[in-house]
Q: What sequence folds into this?
């Protein structure tokens, strides 16, 4: 069994469902860095400026722009740093994936993960890409498990508030210490 276990809004749900189309083993998705010491965990790390803004946006899903997201930023930064610290502590057992690599070529990243864990995979390069099939089959929702997409106006406004927070530098400094598989 493989478990995608990442900081919220880092592609965890999307990639666990997506990888299940390619990797021949049971796959789950959780958000629990304390489990990084267990075998079979994959952590996707996204730039914290993006993942924390996305998380603030997700929590504003009612459509009302709440610029008081600053109340949550410190909490989210502290959580993000814990995820990074636990990943670094468990780097010998944990597979660490870069969100941008996953986004750019999810098929290749899924195959790389399968090979890393010695799990078989199915892939037909002549067939419709798994990314296209994933979208066609509707294996995503507006908020969870979706393909990375264009940012709407509210997300851009929230991102502006988040990016102006001096607290994000702590999370970004931690992010820069990661070594990706």
A:
């Amino acid at each position: 069994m493989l478990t995608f276990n990442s900081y919220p809004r880092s592609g965890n749900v999307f990639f666990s469902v997506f990888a299940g189309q390619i990797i021949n083993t049971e796959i789950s998705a959780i958000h629990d860095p304390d489990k990084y010491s267990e075998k079979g965990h994959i952590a996707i790390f996204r730039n914290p400026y993006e993942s924390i803004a996305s998380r603030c946006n997700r929590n504003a899903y009612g459509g009302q722009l709440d610029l008081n997201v600053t109340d949550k930023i410190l909490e989210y930064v502290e959580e993000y740093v814990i995820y990074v610290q636990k990943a670094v502590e468990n780097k010998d057992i944990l597979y660490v994936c870069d969100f941008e690599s996953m986004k750019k070529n999810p098929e290749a990243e899924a195959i790389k993960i399968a090979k890393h864990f010695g799990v078989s995979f199915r892939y037909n390069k002549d067939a419709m890409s798994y990314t296209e099939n994933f979208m066609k089959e509707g294996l995503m929702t507006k908020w969870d498990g979706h393909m990375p997409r264009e940012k709407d106006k509210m997300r851009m406004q929230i991102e502006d508030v988040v990016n102006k927070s001096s607290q994000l530098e702590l999370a970004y400094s931690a992010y820069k210490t990661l070594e990706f598989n």
About this structure: The chain has eight helices and four strands. Strands lie at 2-5, 27-30, 41-45, 95-98. The CA atoms of residues 48 and 172 lie 6 Å apart. The first helix runs from residue 12 to 19.
